[in-house]
Amino acid sequence: MSKRKILIIEDDRDIVEMLEYNLKEEGYETLSALNGELGVELAGNERPDLIILDIMLPIMDGFEVCRTLKNDDRVSHIPIIILSAKSQETDKVVGLELGADDYVTKPFSPRELIARTRAILRRTRGQQPGSRTQRGEIVIDSTRHKVMVGKKEVPLTLTEFKLLEFMARRPGAVFSRSQILDAVTGDDAVVCDRTVDAHIKSLRHKLGPAKDFIETIRGAGYRFKEV
Q: Helix, strand or coil for residue 17?
C-alpha cells in the first residue's frame, strides 16, 4: 500500500524540518514548499493527500493559496490544515470559510497536529478527486449531493444539480442547449431545448444572490461565469 502524501507549505525551515521528521516517523511521505506560489504548483503536480498550509507566506499568502486551490477542480478535494501564528477568531473563520478543514495555532504540539492529520485523512479516505467544487460562494459537494450558497443549503432536483455541476466545473465555457441536454440527461432523453431554459430559470431562482454566476449568451447558450 502506497504511503499517504503530505504537502507542507511553510516558509520557516525549522518548522518544515520538524514536521517532515514527525510525519515520516508516522509513515507519511512529505514534500514541501517555502512560498505560496510554489505550493500551488506542487499541489497541482503532485496531488498530495493533505496540505498543511501556513498563512504568513511570501509571494502568495496562505488565504490566497487556499482560495486558489479550492477553485481548481484538480485539487479542490484535497483537505487543508491551516497552520498559523494568527489566533484571532476572524482569521480562523476566514480560513474555514475558504474551505480549509482545520486551523491550528502556533505554537503547536506535533502530536496534536499529526492526530488531526490522521483524523482528516481517515474521514476523507473514500472521497473521490473533484467531488467538491467551489465557485465564489457556491460550493458543490458531489459525494453528498449537496449545494451550499454561503452558509445556506440549496435544495435542487437531480437535473438541476447535474446541470449546475456540469457548468461549474467548466467556468468560462459556453454551452449550447443541446450540449447541456446531452451532458445532463443523456443522448437518449426525448426532451426539447426549451427544457434547459426552464431548468436554468428554476436554478437561478434557487441560487438567489448567486444567480448571476449563470450567464445567458445570446444566440449561443449558457455559461458559468469565471471567478
A: helix
CA distance 3 to 44: 18
Do 133 and 142 form a contact (C-beta atoms < 8 A)?
Answer: yes
Shared domain check, 115 and 149:
no
Question: Which residue type occupies 136?
Answer: G
pLDDT band at 2 (very low <50, low <70, confident <90, very high): low
User: Which residue, among 206, 207, 213, has the nearest Cα to 227 in the 3D structure?
Assistant: 213
| One domain, residues 142 and 60 | no
Task: Examine the domain organization and report whether 114 and 173 are in the same domain.
Answer: no
Task: Return d(Cα 104, Cα 84) in angstroms, integer.
Answer: 7
Find out whether 84 and 91 touch, Cβ atoms under 8 Å.
Answer: yes
d(CA 132, CA 169): 10
pTM above 0.70, yes or no: no
